[in-house]
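ok so dumb question maybe but i'm new to this and my supervisor (M.) told me to 'just get the structure for mitogen-activated protein kinase kinase' and walked off. so i did the thing. is this what she meant?? sequence i used:
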Amino acid sequence: MARPGHRHRLTLDDLDEEALAAGPGLEDTLDSFDNTLCERDANGNGVAIDSGGVRLQASGEEIDDAVHRDELQILDDNIGRGACSQVQLAKSRTDGRLYALKIFNIFDGPKRRQLWTEVKSLWNVHCPALIGFYGAFLDGGRVCCVLEYMDCGTLEDVIYKVPGDLPIPENMLASLAYQMLWGLAFLQHDNQLHRDVKPGNVLVNRRGEAKLGDFGIARRLEENGLANTVTGTFKYMSPERLNGETYTYNSDVWSVGVLLLEAARKRYPFGDCHNQIELVQGLQESDTEDVIRSCDLSAAFGDFLRGCMVMDKRERLDAEQLLDSPVFAEYGIHDYDSAAKVLAAWVRDCVPERKLEYSDDYDSDAKMLNTLGSSMGTMDEEATERCLETYNSFRASDEEVGNLSLDMADMDLKEAKREYDSTYDRKLGESK
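this is what came out, is it supposed to look like this??
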């Protein structure tokens, strides 16, 4: 291991069995710098993640992340899962705030690449329509990204889990459209494409906010503003992407149109397509106008969707142009906050509140406290401190969790604490 302050390129000789089993190529993207995972671009800019958090390395400066690993307590081991990551629910021990902890395996090449793309896309980005990023840390063979927690889940959850068969009302669709376009317009100003806009990558909360998430395949465009790689979820790809042509920012706009049609109809608008070839054929044979007309939508919203779903990329509007569509003014939407306000009332009334399932660690730790509580004063100082620390964290979380009974009287902790205070001088840490 290199000395602190010195950089060392990791070689195969430095890797453990798990890393070796991951195959070739890992040594090309990993640096060892006091247990740090690093990645840089051709200009030397990049991100470094270690057990302490994310550090952006610019001009020799290191900027620490906002949320440290030790501040977080895992509440639920699995609130979501993607192709390249697992998502856990975590809670800050300091202020009780909830976070989504997105976990990547660093020994998996594709997952590692998506991690870097996501971190570099979200770090130091402040846009209300993009999911908040609060840091990251290295934990063994995993990198954990600390993200904003959205308590209604994904838009896919909202579309298909809302009770009843009634479609989402048009004013709600307008709110969702405006918020997604706001996020895409922000990305465009930063020369970025999302490239995977779909219901599962739009997160919603009970404040009515809809935010773009999952930037694992986002792409920064060069001066010509064009990309040509085919990546993403094919059902939401624009025609030019499906055909392997170059594409630009308005390819994400097509995805927004497909998503909104799906939300309006409560089913995917272009039938049962199992691959890109079938979808290309379906788009050639069908008319998007017929699909739009099949929805019970106003003329203004229909015109808006037509602006999103122009087959010819040269004629399709971009996100910033579509934000000026007349349909938004009809529903009192003129900025992100007003759009969220429109959606909030419907979410509160129609979207079931998400019930959180907390980790089994709570139950096991609660049993431990019950067992140790009565004998707490007889334990050594270190063990007693650990028990008190665990107890205090549970008392803080119990107000929100609500499914644990951590009564001090039941665990006899009041008496145990008095015994503890009489046995140890807490200020000096010495036995009397």
